[in-house]
Design goal:
- The protein is of the alpha/beta class.
- Helices cover 57% and strands 9% of the residues.
- Strand 9 (598-603) and strand 10 (606-611) form a beta hairpin.
- The chain starts with 5 loop residues before the first helix and ends in a 24-residue tail after the last strand.
- It is a multi-pass membrane protein.
Length: 1328
């Protein structure tokens, strides 16, 4: 598959990190050129760097696949964790080492140095000098700088590690998918695999950011508690009680969230599976007017999914709210205990306590629960990966021979070991070198399964299969991928122009390529959606024929082409071009059987009879009758020029790329999200809750400072109530007891508001997510077909999986973080400036610098994030297309080609994603360095301007918190805008152009009862840029009139089925009873369905893959019969069935749709010769339109088509047309003969084979209103009644019930006037 890769499309520059030095990597200087380009213009794929060698997908998956295979060989229970560890253990160890250095050395040193610095301000302190204070302050600043640089180095390292794991596991899953057996494919779906590669992979990626907390947090907690006990005494451990109570609760909540994560994944699988099928079958859904019903179906699944997501998200929100107040509550308990034991709070005790408890809170209460949650959820993902990787693979059960040919002896096989019935039984089948062998038989007999046996797709349980030589295969259901015609034919094979042009010629594609706007460089669309069925079949055949092989397995390649093209392909492709090759042809076209070397008749999974054409003809079997019918067909050569015509070289058509907006996300997107979550008033209420929570949080921090300063004044000046009035107010109203009560009140309100705020906000986000998904799905399913032609299923599914997943789970946390951090930063700056007004100057300067850094970063980051989203879609599209054509891919041995293609897509995505990671880290590092400078400035100001230890400690601790918080807030803010592109992409699909409802007018009930179809000067094209496909079409089809969509049934050329039961496919929304469904299954399906394990309720695999193509077409026919609409459209509906079944189906259609308007597209001309009218189209124009016999008399285009079938067949078709013309066509009003012995009477017209009547007088009138509609008052033979006035077709009032005509006749004037052979025939069925 030659998908377009960015690497092939553009000449990309090498990655700047390849030549960067240590300092450049440490400070992310290699990103500066990227920021310069991004600031000047919107970044595009041309600006992507080449993928770094360490990120190369093929290299990573090669190592992981080897490690996984070792697990399979060495262990009964293979572990993907162990395989990942083996490949990435050194990266993991480096990550752990850096984490240890940061958490256990750098971060611990700062509170210790702060404690020493605070000791300098104690009135009783004499050991700490001014110089010592400066040294301790310097340690705080230097430690903050090292924390910044090393911390971000660790982050980029683990992010690269998680990215490499994601790439390796994704490619490993894809490679496994290419090897799945048919049985395994029945146990999984494309939607499930897509969910594995999106949501489950995301859970695994989160693990590498938090797993260090699992081993480090307990150790760090013990170390911190020991230091606290040593510095501050036993009262410093009082807050530990609160932490020990809440931490297990947090862990329990995290475990519960992980439990729900598994259930969410299963529901998401189900939703994506249905979405995949809906996109594939959208044309049928639209024709049957099922859009609203499927909206309800997806809505029901989505509600169940969201119920689980709400629970998991509420649990996470509760855990998040704990993190907001747990450290402050613990500090409160310590201080209260300290005061109640007879002490006064001082700066050294309070700020050392606050710093260490903030670390403890982050380590134990925040990181540890997150780590537990992520590990549990990633473990769920790993188990799902392992379940998939342990599915059954295709195993080579064939014997490889050096002799060219196929040999099967006494082979028995079935698709599933659990199946009671064999698919194939006692098969003996031989094809020798140079032979052309035909396989024929009724639908569902096992013809395609026999080819699957040859391809090793179906394993034998008895007997053996021997193959010799290379095999090429053309599937019965043409498989095309979203590339050009040329790419689909070559399929990775080298271009040989002479051979290529010859293949185009013998596969009858020259004329088609001449009509395509870009020749063979025309894009075919996903699954060949822009081509006709015949064009897809011939391109599919050309791919098989172009490949150098010894054996060609062709599964019914002639069913979708007309007679002349079929004869051309058989003569020039199968017989001439493949002469000397082994050719196995599955076909229902019996006219070619006399030209093959051997014929095998397959019935009920066994070979009923085999031999040459003459041997079978003389066999005396029932089958010989079929062969005798074949004599009606001619085998004259098709006149074709001998010279190979050069194909005109056209510029390659560019595929319509996924739309990507530029610039920053518009305010309207944010407004749409807010409106989806409720109203602006609710949003403002949420903001108020956040503000109040922040006020209480900062209020608790400030109150401690106030209390510490108050106690320092009391201690330093030894103030009492009796000797001074300077601090009278504070001393009277802020006693220790009152301070404890005030402090407790603030903490209590903080706990309440933090919890209510988190839960309320999450609820609003969930409402928004539900509404956005519902609106997007409704808009998508009601979009015009142009939308589905130009957007691959992978692209659409990416919106419903990845983007909706982001809105469901990532966006609520992100939005809450942004609001919380924004208010925290504003609050921190505010209280710092309030405590120490001198800090206002550096605060303003730093804010301006940070704003400009953010502005430069955001313009670049935004475009990179959008590129990352759009370059993720091809991965899903490639997977979807590969799974649809798995048999063809394996038959062509193209697995390596497709693996390489996926690796290319992965490399493009990795390159863009690493640019995104690098830009984020650079931004964070530079902001943190600015914050370190800010900490330095405010520390100098505090040391020189402040005398209260509380103020100094407060300014420094708040400043240190800004070091991480400010850049994290800015990054989260920027990330919010980046992640809001998911909302933007969803809104884009919500606003997609829908089908216009105003074009459907309200019609009278009578219009629905008949089926008249009229085209008046109709011209149509698929898009504004495309040429017209219909040009000034004027056609009247009458009666019965209808064009309301719900009143139309369609049997499509490619049968569309959905996973679920047989009953659900016939009646998706339970509108009919079982009895009626069994009645419509009489079309050669009833016996087959009865034999299934659960009958009507037996499940179909995805796309109905466990049914033959013919059986799937029969199910589509049964679906149409069940609806019994007035208009029936047959698009090659019987192309894939055998002649006997075709005859039965034609009879069924004529009987069950006798009072319907039937429009048929067919290449089998004998199926349409009894039609009332034939419309001949050429280049979008109506060339001829009349009864078949009349058109044949005109000797125009239709006559030429009939005669191209051959002289004998043409004569036979002309006779059929003449006979039907004489009988008035299919809409004959058969009249009973009224003998002379009968008096004038009324006789109901029912079923009768006589098309005329001898009568002295005849009057036809409606039983409803008695109006006479036809009258003859003299003896005459009325045959055929086709000559009656047109009003004959418009009798009576409209009714859904079958109408009857009544005949009233006078006595014959002469009994000799009527032939004796005509007798009374009873009731006549009136076919309208």
């Amino acid at each position: 598959m030659e998908g377009k890769s960015v690497f092939n499309k553009y000449k990309l520059q090498s990655h700047p990190q390849e030549n960067s030095n240590f300092l450049s990597e440490l400070f992310f200087c290699w990103t500066i050129p990227m920021f310069k380009t991004g600031f000047k213009k919107e970044l595009t794929e041309e600006d992507i760097y080449k993928t770094l060698k360490r990120h190369d997908a093929s290299r990573l998956v090669g190592k992981l696949e080897k490690a996984w295979n070792e697990q399979l060989d060495q262990s009964v229970k293979p572990s993907l964790w162990k395989a990942i560890w083996k490949i990435f253990k050194w990266d993991t160890i480096i990550s752990m080492s850096l984490y240890f250095f940061i958490e256990f050395i750098i971060k611990i040193s700062r509170p210790v140095a702060l404690g020493k610095l605070m000791g300098y301000y104690l009135p009783t302190e004499t050991e700490v000098s001014k110089d010592d204070a400066i040294i301790y302050a310097s340690i705080i600043v230097i430690a903050s700088f090292i924390d910044t640089v090393v911390g971000h180095a660790w982050m980029i390292h683990f992010q690269q590690l998680s990215m490499k794991v994601r790439v390796a596991v994704s490619s490993l899953l894809y490679r496994k998918a290419l090897r799945l057996s048919k049985k395994a494919l029945n146990e999984t779906t494309v939607g499930h695999i897509i969910n594995l590669l999106s949501n489950d992979i995301h859970q695994l990626v989160l693990f590498y950011g938090t797993f260090n907390a699992l081993w480090a947090s307990p150790l760090q907690a013990v170390l911190i508690l020991c230091i606290l006990y040593y510095i501050s005494g036993p009262t410093a451990l009082a807050g530990l009680v609160f932490i020990l109570i809440l931490t297990p609760l947090q862990l329990l909540l995290s475990k519960k969230a992980a439990f729900y994560r598994l259930r969410i994944a299963l529901k998401t699988d189900e939703r994506i599976r249905y979405m995949s099928e809906i996109i594939s079958g959208i044309q049928v859904i639209k024709v049957y007017n099922w859009e609203q019903s499927f909206v309800k179906l997806i809505d029901a699944i989505r509600r169940k999914e969201m119920y689980l997501i709400k629970i998991a998200t509420y649990l996470n929100a509760l855990t998040t709210s704990f993190a907001f107040f747990i450290d402050r509550t613990a500090i409160f308990l310590c201080i209260v205990t300290y005061v109640l034991t007879g002490n006064s709070p001082n700066a050294q005790y309070v700020f050392v306590l606050a710093s260490f408890y903030e670390m403890l809170m982050g380590s134990v209460s925040l990181y540890l629960p997150d780590a537990v949650s992520d590990i549990l959820q990633s473990n769920v993902a790993i188990k799902r990966f392992e379940n998939f990787l342990n599915l059954e693979e295709v195993r080579c059960n064939t014997i490889i021979s050096k002799e060219i040919g196929l040999r099967i002896e006494k082979a028995t096989a079935k698709w599933s070991k659990e199946s009671k019935q064999n698919t194939l039984s006692n098969i003996n089948f031989t094809v020798e070198d140079g032979q052309v062998v035909a396989i024929i038989g009724p639908i569902g007999s096992g013809k395609s399964s026999l080819l699957q046996l040859c391809l090793n797709e179906l394993s034998v349980s008895e007997g053996f299969v021997q193959t010799g030589g290379r095999i090429s295969y053309a599937n019965q259901e043409p498989w095309l991928f979203a590339g050009t015609v040329k790419q689909n034919i070559l399929f990775g094979a080298p271009m040989d122009k002479l051979k290529y042009h010859k293949v185009i010629k013998v596969c009858a594609l020259e004329e088609d390529l001449g009509q395509f706007p870009h020749g063979d460089n025309t894009v075919v669309g996903e699954r060949g959606i822009l081509l006709s069925g015949g064009q897809k079949a011939r391109i599919n055949l050309a791919r098989a024929v172009y490949r150098d092989a010894d054996i060609y397995l062709l599964d019914d390649p002639l069913s979708a082409v007309d007679a002349s093209v079929g004869k051309h392909i058989f003569k020039h492709c199968i017989k001439d071009y493949l002469k000397g090759k082994c050719v196995v042809l599955v076909t229902h076209q019996i006219q070619y059987l006399s030209s093959v070397d051997n014929i095998y008749l397959v019935v009920n999974g066994s070979i009923a009879v085999s031999g040459s054409y003459k041997e079978l003809q003389a066999s005396g079997e029932d089958f010989s009758k079929v062969l005798n019918n074949e004599e009606n067909f001619d085998h004259e050569d098709v006149v074709v020029a001998n010279e190979t015509t050069d194909i005109k070289e056209e510029p390659e058509q560019n595929e319509e790329e996924e739309k990507r907006t530029s610039g920053k996300v518009s305010k309207e997107v944010y407004m749409r999200f807010i409106r989806a979550g409720g109203s602006y008033c609710i949003f403002l209420l949420m903001i108020l809750l956040f503000v109040l929570t922040e006020i209480f949080a900062k209020g608790s921090d400030y109150f401690i400072t106030f209390w510490v300063n108050l106690e320092q004044r009391r201690l330093g000046q030894n103030i009492s109530l009796n000797n001074s009035s300077e601090f009278y107010f504070e001393d009277i109203y802020f006693t220790k007891t009152i301070c404890i009560y005030l402090y407790a009140g603030i903490i209590g309100l903080l706990i309440i508001f933090a919890t209510v705020r988190s839960m309320s906000f999450i609820r609003g986000c969930m409402v928004a997510s539900v509404n956005l998904h519902d609106k997007m799905f409704t808009s998508t399913v009601k979009a015009t077909m142009r939308f589905f032609y130009t957007n691959s299923s992978g692209r659409i599914l990416n919106r419903f999986s990845n983007d909706i997943g982001t809105i469901d789970e990532a966006l609520p946390d992100l939005q809450m973080d942004v609001l919380q951090l924004t208010l925290s930063v504003i609050g921190t700056f505010g209280v710092i400036c309030m405590i120490s007004p001198w800090t206002l100057i550096p605060t303003l300067a730093i804010s301006i610098i940070m704003y400009f850094i953010r502005m430069v970063f955001l313009t670049t980051s935004r475009s990179i994030k959008r590129m990352e989203s759009t370059n993720r879609s091809p991965i899903f599209a490639h997977l979807t297309e590969s799974m649809k054509g798995l048999t063809t891919i394996r038959a062509c041995n193209a697995e390596l080609l497709l693996e390489k293609e996926l690796d290319n897509y992965q490399n493009v995505h990795s390159s863009v994603f690493y640019m995104f990671l690098g830009s984020n880290r650079a931004f964070a590092t530079w902001l943190d360095i600015v914050c370190v400078i800010y900490v330095l400035l405010i520390t100098v100001i505090a040391l020189t301007k402040e005398t209260y230890a509380g103020n100094v400690g407060f300014v420094i601790t708040q400043g240190m918190s800004l070091t991480g918080m400010f850049q994290w807030g800015m990054r989260r803010w920027s990330e919010l805008e980046n992640q809001m592109t998911s909302v933007e992409r969803v809104v884009e699909y919500i606003d997609v152009k829908r089908e216009s409802d105003n074009q459907t007018t309200k019609l009278k009930l009578e219009w629905l009862q008949h089926g008249k179809i009229e085209f008046r000067s109709v011209s149509m094209k698929y898009s504004s840029d495309d040429p017209y496909v219909l040009k000034n079409l004027n056609v009247l089809i009458k009666p019965n009139e209808n064009s309301v969509r719900s009143g139309i049934s369609i049997i499509p050329q490619e049968p569309i089925l959905f996973s679920g039961s047989v009953r659900k496919n016939l009646d998706p929304f339970d509108e009919y009873g079982d009895e009626k469904i069994w009645n419509v299954l009489e079309v050669k399906l009833k016996d087959f369905i009865v034999d299934l394990p659960a009958g009507l309720y037996s499940n179909l695999s995805e796309g109905g893959s466990n049914f033959s193509v013919g059986q799937k077409q029969l199910i589509c026919l049964a679906r149409a019969l069940l609806r019994n609409n007035k208009i029936l459209m047959l698009d090659e509906a019987t192309a894939n069935v055998d002649p006997h079944t075709d005859e039965l189906l034609q009879r069924t259609i004529r009987t069950n749709f006798a009072n319907c308007t039937v429009l048929t597209i067919a290449h089998r001309l004998h199926t349409i010769m009894d039609s009332d009218k034939v419309l001949v189209m050429d280049n979008g124009r109506a060339v001829e339109f009349d009864h078949p016999y009349i058109l044949l008399q005109k000797r125009g285009s239709f006559h030429d088509l009939v005669m191209e079938t051959g002289g004998k067949m043409g004569e036979s078709l002309i006779q059929v047309a003449q006979k039907e013309h004489n009988h008035g066509g299919r809409n004959i009003y058969n009249i009973i003969y009224i003998p002379s012995s009968m008096s004038t009477t009324k006789v109901p017209l029912g079923r009768c084979s006589i098309s005329g009547v001898w009568a002295t007088g005849l009057e036809l009138f409606s039983p409803h209103d008695g109006d006479s509609i036809y009258r003859k008052t003299y003896p005459t033979r009325i045959s055929p009644l086709r000559t009656c006035p047109a009003e004959l077709g418009h009798y009576g009032r409209p009714t859904r019930k079958r109408s009857r005509l009544w005949a009233e006749a006078e006595k014959f004037t002469s009994s000799a006037a009527a032939p004796e052979s005509i007798q009374t025939c009873g009731l006549v069925q009136v076919a309208r």
